[in-house]
Amino acid sequence: MPDARVSGLDVSKFQPDVDWAKVKAAGMQFVFARASYGTGAATEPTFKSHWQGAKAAGLIRGAYHFFVPADDAGAQARLFLSQVRGAIAPDENAYLPAVIDVEMQPGSVSAANYVAGVRAWIAAVEADPLFAGRKTIIYTTASFWATLGNPAGFGDHPLWVADYSRDPPRLPQGWTSYAFFQKSQDGTVDGIAGKIDVDFFNGDIDVLTAMTAALTA
């Protein structure tokens, strides 16, 4: 039986060739495209084509950044903003809030410094005109958030939670609900070769569409 929830997917350079018209026809209504990874200048060469192709097909779009705790948070924010600015059309503003993907193991970085970096990235992105008035979406899992000490002060940000074994998903401490749910890494969608991440929005299409508008005039 088909899932009645608002369905979407997320893509990166690992899906270089996407037939967005087929993706839309398959029932996908939104997509998150990876714009940047750490401070690597050439980490996502397909972002622009993903962004523009999804727009042409009529999908609701969002951009995400994979946060690397050992890299400078300010430089990561600048790279992300540069990537987004280079992909959007002049005066384009109908897109989802920025996403920070928080899942890389800390390594030698302390949990306190990791969390400080996440806060710095969010502050820099939300201060930019591209995302002014839009609360950054945080992607993580309940278990990974716990490895950072379940930091407080993030629960007012929309949550994109990954949980491949529970539906509804387990929530990280500090949140009482989620906005997006990554249910699987092993989905298939017409228009994309191979396995793909499967996501759902926790609301109807009108609520999702409303998220694409800035909260400030």
Secondary-structure map with pairings?
Blueprint: E1 6-11, H1 20-25, E2 30-37, H2 47-57, E3 60-66, H3 73-87, E4 99-101, H4 111-126, E5 137-140, H5 142-147, E6 159-162, E7 180-187, E8 196-201, H6 205-210
Helix pairs in contact: 2-3, 3-4
How would you characterize this protein structure?
It is a single chain. The chain is an alpha/beta fold and 217 residues long. It has a single domain (6-210), classed as Alpha-Beta Barrel (TIM Barrel). Helix content is 28%, strand content 21%. The protein has helices spanning 20-25, 47-57, 73-87, 111-126, 142-147, 205-210, and strands at residues 6-11, 30-37, 60-66, 99-101, 137-140, 159-162, 180-187, 196-201. It has an 8-stranded mixed beta barrel. Helix 2 packs across helix 3 and helix 3 (73-87) runs parallel beside helix 4 (111-126). The longest helix has 16 residues, at 111-126. The chain is globular. The chain starts with 5 loop residues before the first strand and ends in a 7-residue tail after the last helix. The model has no long low-confidence stretch (mean pLDDT 95).
Summarize this entry quickly.
The protein has one domain (6-210): TIM Barrel (Alpha-Beta Barrel), CATH 3.20.20. Helices cover 28% and strands 21% of the residues.
Give a quick set of tags describing it.
single chain; 217 residues; alpha/beta; TIM Barrel; eight-stranded mixed barrel; 6 helices; 8 strands; 21% strand; globular
